[in-house]
Design goal:
Layout: E1 3-4, E2 10-14, H1 17-24, H2 28-37, E3 38-47, H3 49-52, E4 63-70, H4 77-86, E5 91-97, E6 100-110, E7 118-125, E8 129-130, E9 136-137, H5 144-155, H6 166-192, H7 196-217
Parallel strand pairs: 1-9, 4-5
Antiparallel strand pairs: 2-3, 3-4, 5-6, 6-7, 6-8
Helix pairs in contact: 1-4, 6-7
Length: about 220
């Protein structure tokens, strides 16, 4: 999934890794990951009132789009999180490697206890697509906060529920991932079990966990 960013929002500046290190207080191990995984960071687009003609919102005054050229197609979430911490705006990343691209982002909001810091969710990843793949138009939105919510939601592996705000959706994705992990553990346990009676019990637990996972993923599920 790739988005079509307007030419009016093009920024096009290379971001030195040293600036990220400085603002993210990066330690030696993190710097090594940057060197091993990241070839170049380009500040590609600035989605702002003056570039999109969309009003700013309280917590979303601009959205920055960073294009990261990877060395071997992989990037650690620690590296993405360091960049997110260093840049005081919501970020959308576009990763590129060997003529393929993918979009990744976390939901990012100011820390209520310390407005100088950000709360950053887990990351949401699109599949890889070819350089020439069709791009999606930016979602129609009333302001930058609504646009940001829709961009993040488009990357999530769950369907949107009516009247569910983006934070609730982020929490539901976290619950889905935790439940997927639980299902995988039960499946592994079942594969190792030899006793028939225990297999029956584990199979029952597996069916329940899978049903709960399906409910969490569904747009009409009653997740609380």
């Amino acid at each position: 999934m790739l988005f079509a960013y307007p030419k009016s929002a093009r920024f096009g500046r290379v971001v030195p890794k040293s600036k990220i290190y400085e603002h993210a207080d990066a330690k030696a191990a993190l710097k090594d990951r940057f060197v091993a995984e990241v070839d170049q960071i380009n500040w590609a687009y600035k989605l702002a009132p003056e570039t999109l003609r969309l009003d700013a919102a309280k917590h979303v005054t601009e959205i920055q789009v960073f294009v990261i050229r990877l060395r071997d197609g992989r990037i650690s979430e620690d590296v993405l999180r360091a960049i997110d911490r260093a840049i005081p705006f919501p970020l959308i990343f576009e990763l590129t490697h060997n003529d393929k691209r993918r979009t990744v982002a976390a939901f990012k909001r100011p820390n209520e206890a310390d407005k100088s810091k950000w709360v950053i969710s887990d990351y949401f990843w699109s599949d890889w697509a070819g350089e020439g793949a069709e791009r999606l138009a930016l979602p129609v939105s009333l302001n930058l906060a609504a646009l940001y919510d829709k961009l993040i939601t488009a990357l999530m592996p769950v369907s949107a529920k009516e009247d569910e705000d983006v934070q609730a959706r982020v929490d539901r994705v976290a619950a889905v991932r935790a439940k997927e992990h639980e299902v995988a553990k039960i499946q592994a346990k079942l594969a190792k079990e030899k006793q028939f009676n225990r297999k029956v019990e584990i199979n029952k637990a597996l069916r329940i966990a899978k049903q709960e996972l399906t409910q969490l993923k569904a747009a009409d599920s009653q997740f609380e």
